[in-house]
Amino acid sequence: MLEFPTFPSLCEWFVSKLPIRHAAISTLGDPFELDIVSVSDAVAAELEQTQLDFGAGPCWEAKAAGAPVLVHDLRQASQLSWPALLTAAESHGVRSTYAFPMAVGAIDVGVVDLYATTTHALGPHEVQNAWAMADVAAVRVVDHVLSEVDSPVAVRSPRRFLHQATGMVMAQLGVPSDDAMVVIRAHAFASGTSIPDVVEAIIRRDIDFSA
């Protein structure tokens, strides 16, 4: 059964469960800031910052494609247009990198970047696990980011309507109630809409996160 870690331990969770040495999580703009939100260590921080500074690397390609970018041997990746990242990775003995996009519903959240010090092609089961973990991370990241935002988006909807909308999102996405509430908050934040208006739209079925 998949675990549900707290936000501070997200990157350590990836390192403990997958054949990797370093992990980093970034939001890559619109609707969130361009920012590194979690790293496992200093090496992960440097590699992630290199990608953000140069605007090139697996995280950007995973975000654009909406799919994992898996490079099992960076030394054989001369065709990749990430010279700064390849140099930084080589200096730290990083041999493989895997990037998994994060999303909550239809909202792009960012990317989880994983780095290994061995050449290793992730198997189908490992890819499936990593992507499932990225889905969990997406919810934790959104919850963390929104908790730090001084937003006028307050929950003013009558409680019964909020519960109804939350239940509908739970059914649409197959997620627990806390995660469904994060989806509602994230949609409100991303669209610049109040939570009450989002709640009403969900109940009217104008918003369907399963679509």
Task: Explain this structure.
- The protein is α+β, with helices and mostly antiparallel strands and 211 residues long.
- It folds into two domains: 7-147, GAF domain (Beta-Lactamase, 2-Layer Sandwich); 159-203.
- It is 48% helix and 17% strand.
- It contains eight helices and five strands; from the N terminus they run αββααβαββαααα.
- Strand 4 (96-104) and strand 5 form a beta hairpin.
- The two termini are 27 Å apart.
- The model is unreliable at 150-157 (pLDDT under 50).
Report the count of strand segments.
Answer: 5
CATH class descriptor of the largest domain: Alpha Beta
Number of structurally distinct domains = 2
Shape: elongated
Quick structural gist:
The chain is built from eight helices and five strands, in the order αββααβαββαααα. With 211 residues, it is α+β, with helices and mostly antiparallel strands. A hairpin with a 2-residue loop joins β4 and β5.
